[in-house]
Amino acid sequence: xxxxxxxxxxxxxxxxxxxxxxxxxxxxxxxxxxxxxxxxxxxxxxxxxxxxxxxxxxxxxxxxxxxxxxxxxxxxxxxxxxxxxxxxxxxxxxxxxxxxxxxxxxxxxxxxxxxxxxxxxxxxxxxxxxxxxxxxxxxxxxxxxxxxxxxxxxxxxxxxxxxxxxxxxxxxxxxxxxxxxxxxxxxxxxxxxxxxxxxxxxxxxxxxxxxxxxxxxxxxxxxxxxxxxxxxxxxxxxxxxxxxxxxxxxxxxxxxxxxxxxxxxxxxxxxxxxxxxxxxxxxxxxxxxxxxxxxxxxxxxxxxxxxxxxxxxxxxxxxxxxxxxxxxxxxxxxxxxxxxxxxxxxxxxxxxxxxxxxxxxxxxxxx
Length: 367
Fold this sequence. Notes:
Structural class: mainly alpha
């Protein structure tokens, strides 16, 4: 009896240990990034399964409606005296009015995009379109160019967003913090090399460069652990005595802690990323996006820049969406490019905001 209890308790401890390891990996930066990629990919397959069949059904209905209208107009032409233009026009107008109402209802309520049943191989709700839809849901952009029309698709969107939005915010925040730390040290390394440009090669200490790189990597590792343990740090900080703004800043920016005491490391610790550098980085990424979409879409440069800003600011009007011309070759590939540009851009914006926030805090302290 005791052996059974021991085996049960051992199994229970193993299950708890595996659960802890899984949660530790899930809430790590790498784990959250992998989870977000898997989650959006799952969303792409999910909405293909829920919505693609309905889109085919709507296209077939509209095809049959168009055939009926053509047949009705032909019968009117045969049965009525076409010399009496007023009578024929009145009857044809009634037929076209009914067809116009049918087109509006299918476009507004059922999501018909004007495509024919003969173009069934290029659906809106294929994997690329569903993947872009999933990303716009979890990032709260919501272009609105396609929306689920089935009851199951709408219900799935609700629960998909409930789980996906917190996961996306958590992942982008962590990724932005790590990117901010990496960019800060890269910027410091560039400034350090620039300051040594006019020093003779014989007087340079090449070992300091290697030590600097090692310090960068070690600090990034500590920063990753700092992010993963952020919740536990908040709990311990709530019980600690209240500190000044300067002490809070020093405890938050771990990289200000002294590394080995050399003149180079002290200079690196004093490196600050100016606000203008962060702004230029964001503008450069917007310009890069405008060049990419200018080459792939029939848009002007201003429209491409406008689209990139509306997308990365998560406004998402939906008046311009890449890859909506389904009959053009490569349109679906550019929808996936848009998805990658969007996710990386949101992390970059979070990084820039993190750098700007720290610089503003330093400015407040100096005043």
